[in-house]
Amino acid sequence: MILKQNEITLKRPDDWHLHVRDNILLQLVLHYTSSTYGRAMIMPNLASPIVDIQSAINYRKKILSLVPNCHNFIPLMTCYLTESLDPNEIEKGFVSSIFHAVKLYPMNSTIHSSYGVKNIRSINKILERIQQIGIPLLIHCEVTDVNVDIFDREARFIDQVIEPIRKQFPKIKMVLEHISTKEAVEYIESSDKRTCATITPHHLMLNRNDLLINGINPHFYCFPILKSRVHQEALRRVISTGNSSFFLGTDSAPHFCNKKENIHGLAGIFNAPVALSVYASIFEELNALKYFEAFCSENGARFYNLPVNKDKITLIRKQTIVEDAIGKFPNHIVPFLAGKTLDWSIKI
Ligand code: DOR
Ligand code: ZN
Ligand code: ZN
């Protein structure tokens, strides 16, 4: 990495947690990621979820057909874990490099998670195979019990689900996705290298005051929900220590504007156009730019046993204003930080 006053050159980063959707949304959003990142771990929670090898192949093909020729981008596919998933399908997909990870959604924890896992004990055979073959298990860490306060759902999930899985399957490689609490940070810090976490730009930048004060902001609404400042500070602290168990995963999750600005507004923040710039500003604020490249471009690749990207990209200190909307009304998306000014831009 080359760090200058107004320029950062780093190995090309990867996004280890990304939703690109399908159809119009896919066409609108893909190039924001493919222009900047070398690879992205593609989430399988489509309306019709990616639950087998054939649907992953088809989805990958569709994504690749939309990547502009000048971009050097590889989508990495994940398999949606359902209670009826055949362990042989996971193994076959992993061995043939179609699946790079299995994604566990607790049933009804988030968007399109109704096919997810209701009873964690019912997937023992699947977890056994996951451990045996070494495919990483990516986890949306929230309990769904309606009696548990929404702000406590992640911490409870660690006690109630992660700990028991860990005890029973000590060798599973797992990623706690988009962590949002002090408890998750401390859990990873006290674990070995088989347990890692992704951190989003929005959970680093914001806390629940930003969501709820001065008029509720649906474009800051996501799962796991933004927590209090104490938790935000814990996430910021840990990236500034350079701990290699934490890496970049934007959880960029686009929805059309009318689905966000809605009485039943959906969770998900479309941050792909701005994520890298936001991460850079945060590492700079924390005086931790020396760890920026490892977080963006190295720690994740190492966890997944993949080579780091060979080429580089450069960020320059140049103010740009984030677009107000992407796409044409009514099929438009409001990007994260729309209308706001970013301090770092990607040099083209
Ligand atoms: O806010 C979120 N949106 N969190 C998730 O876990 C899923 C995502 C989506 O798919 O929209
Ligand atoms: Zn999630
Ligand atoms: Zn996600």
Automatic annotation (TrEMBL):
It catalyses: (S)-dihydroorotate + H2O = N-carbamoyl-L-aspartate + H(+). One of its GO terms (cellular component) is cytosol. Its EC number is 3.5.2.3. HAMAP family: PyrC_classII. The lineage of its organism: Bacteria, Pseudomonadati, Pseudomonadota, Gammaproteobacteria, Enterobacterales. The active site is at residue 251. The gene is pyrC. The keyword Acyltransferase does not apply. Homodimer. Binds 2 Zn(2+) ions per subunit. Its cofactor is Zn(2+). Catalyzes the reversible cyclization of carbamoyl aspartate to dihydroorotate. One of its GO terms (biological process) is 'de novo' UMP biosynthetic process. Substrate binds at residues 19-21, 45, 140, 255, 267. This is Dihydroorotase. The modification N6-carboxylysine is found at residue 103.
